[in-house]
Design a protein that fits this description.
By secondary structure, this protein is an alpha+beta fold. Helices cover about 40% and strands about 20% of the residues. It contains 6 helices and 8 strands. β1 and β2 form a beta hairpin. The radius of gyration is 17 Å and the shape is globular.
């Protein structure tokens, strides 16, 4: 995995401040409050690369490793209809909703792939592939999937889960490589579940498992 810990200076600092002020503006303006309610850990996903959190109408899609390339996805009525149909089919139980979330992430992969070139992406891509323009690293998939989940939450399409803070794993002592993932929290059980696209290729369903299990994987 590539390290995202790059210093933020100059114009990036100003952009980060603008992002924070934008969040406050949403809260004060009476606009949909989802962005104002995100945790500091989720907010850091966006401020660290100087982009705005998602709204009910759009999200920034990161690719090219650590969001070096980006594209705005403006959700159309057809997009919202498709995602609503996918998620409505999973309302019967928490397990069914997680399966629906997998399908929603595949929808996102198909929606953006031809536009930004990630229909050529490979599983577990990082800088060693020398093909940043067609790939996501795990920082990109963490941001993108978290954004999609926040949009679904804002639209009222998550019945059994809420969006949680991203999780990290990595233990050099046991040769476990650094990795990040988005998280959903089961409302009833409070169990945390990962929705991890990075280990999967184009149009393959993301890994969905408990965080407890995920932190032991490599």
């Amino acid at each position: 995995m590539e390290d995202a810990g790059q210093p933020i200076r100059g114009s990036q600092t100003r952009a980060r401040l603008a992002a924070v002020l934008g969040i406050l503006g949403v809260a004060l303006s009476g606009a949909p409050a989802q962005a104002a309610q995100i945790s500091s850990a989720v907010e850091q996903l966006y401020t660290s690369v100087s982009i705005y959190p998602p709204s009910a109408t759009s999200m920034t899609v990161c690719y090219g490793f650590v969001c070096r390339r980006r594209e705005i996805l403006e959700f159309t009525p057809a997009d919202r209809k498709a995602l609503t149909q996918i998620m409505t089919a999973g309302r019967a139980s928490a397990a069914a909703e997680r399966a629906a979330v997998q399908k929603a992430v595949i929808w996102f992969d198909r929606r953006m792939g031809p536009i930004i070139g990630t229909d050529k992406r490979v599983a577990k891509a990082d800088f060693r592939y020398l093909d940043d323009k067609h790939n996501y690293d795990c920082w990109d998939t963490t941001r993108n999937t978290t954004s999609l989940l926040l949009v679904l939450q804002e639209w009222g399409l998550l019945k059994h889960h809420v969006v949680g803070d991203p999780h990290y794993r990595g233990n050099a002592l046991v040769l476990q490589t650094p990795h990040n993932t988005p998280v959903l929290i089961d409302r009833a059980t409070k169990v945390e579940w990962v929705v991890d696209l990075w280990p999967r290729g184009y149009l393959q369903p993301p890994d969905v498992m408990t965080v407890e299990k995920w932190v032991t994987e490599d």
